[in-house]
Amino acid sequence: MSSRRALVSLAAALCFAPAWAQSPAPIKLALIEGLSGPFGNTGEAVVRNIAWAVERVNARGGVKTAQGMRPMVLERYDSKGQSEEALSALKSAVDDGAQVVLQGNSSANAAALIDAINKHNEREPAKRVLFLNYSAVDPALTNEKCSFWHFRFDAHADMRMTALMQVLQSDKKLKSVYLIGQDYSFGQAVLREAKRQLADKRPDVKVVGDELHPMGRVKDFLPYAAKIKASGAQAVITGNWGNDLTLLVKAAREAGYEGKFFTFYGNALGAPAALGDAGVDRVIAVADWLPNVPGKASEAFYQSFRQRFAKPSEDYVHVRMQLMVEALAQAVEKAGSTEPVAVALALEKARVSMAGQTGFMRAEDHQFQQPLVVGVMQRQGEPGVPFDVEGSGYGFKVVRQIKAEQARLPSSCKMVRPG
């Protein structure tokens, strides 16, 4: 059984204060995430993001429904990063009365949850739940595995690769790359799409290495870094995240590798500090947003988060997670209740804005459409880099901004709708 405890935050405290005593029951959000194990730091980063979003909703009185104003409560369930534990946590969350499940830090776990929720909602229509996904980006989740009950708020891997490829395409000196990723559905999807897009957009670039490694189990990446260096690759393309990325880039630095890294998640969680000066001008990252995105709204948003979470180790904020909670609040208010079908139908039409970013949900596949940005690692204080990440002294200068309509890709989803 997955362990669970209520999130200790301003949001939770408000929900159980006497002022709420006569109010309708709070809206329970069940965060099912790996909060321990090799990727526990990424899970805790999610907790901070979602907690902050929930706090803002509750600070304005909660969510307006036909029953009155209802606060949100975030409850956390530790999946330990394992699909079996995630499914056990789902059962606990439903038993605890949650109608909204949040998860993202594993596409394999997300796929298991989609299947389980599809079956549960068909079997027990009185206890249906919605699944909001903030980070699981295997393209299949909104294509062949798309579900009426699942909504993805991150750009999927093919969308992210398309954005990265815009920068790679412009580097005419680049002639060879090494592909490396985690051996599960997401990592496989990243390498598959990298090969496809390279063949299409840069057929002159040779793939000199193509490798998958066990996820979360490699402690020493020096043998991998040695192979990358020996291959002569001028750049590495990887979807690695969490410690699998930090340890990889650290090993590359120790091995003396001087090529570039085109990454999905190289902008935080220890990677910049692990590389140091070796990463300047060499690490490229794609994201829905970066702290150095120009504009007063973006700057104010980031500074507000840093005021709430002041420790350098807590510095990992995502606009998309904030937009996700705002979209949920908007959908519940339009539905007038938390009844999952009504909320899902409203969520299909959600359009939300924050930090100068606007995104909307595409009804045909429940894939959120939003701008993307690509940044390159630089020293803090350089032009375009007012903010560093995690106190490392390094930040990411935005070199490409991609509008939502440019990031959009077609879907093969054949949505099955209830009733």
Could you explain the architecture of this structure?
The protein has 419 residues and is α/β, with parallel strands linked by helices. The protein folds into 2 domains: 4-155 and 300-369, Rossmann fold, CATH 3.40.50.2300; 158-287 and 371-407, Response regulator (Rossmann fold, 3-Layer(aba) Sandwich). It has helices at 10-15, 40-59, 83-95, 107-123, 157-170, 185-201, 222-231, 243-255, 271-275, 296-308, 319-335, 340-347, 404-407, and strands at 4-6, 27-33, 63-65, 68-70, 72-78, 100-103, 130-133, 150-152, 176-182, 206-213, 235-238, 260-263, 283-287, 351-354, 357-362, 367-369, 372-379, 394-402. Strands 10-9-11-12-13-17-18 form a 7-stranded mixed sheet, sandwiched between helices. A 6-stranded mixed sheet has the order 1-5-2-6-7-8, with helices on both faces. Strand 15 and strand 16 (367-369) form a beta hairpin. Helix 5 runs parallel beside helix 6. The chain is globular and about 65 Å long. The protein starts with a strand and ends in a 12-residue tail after the last helix. 52% of the residues are buried. Mean pLDDT is 93; it is low at 1-21.
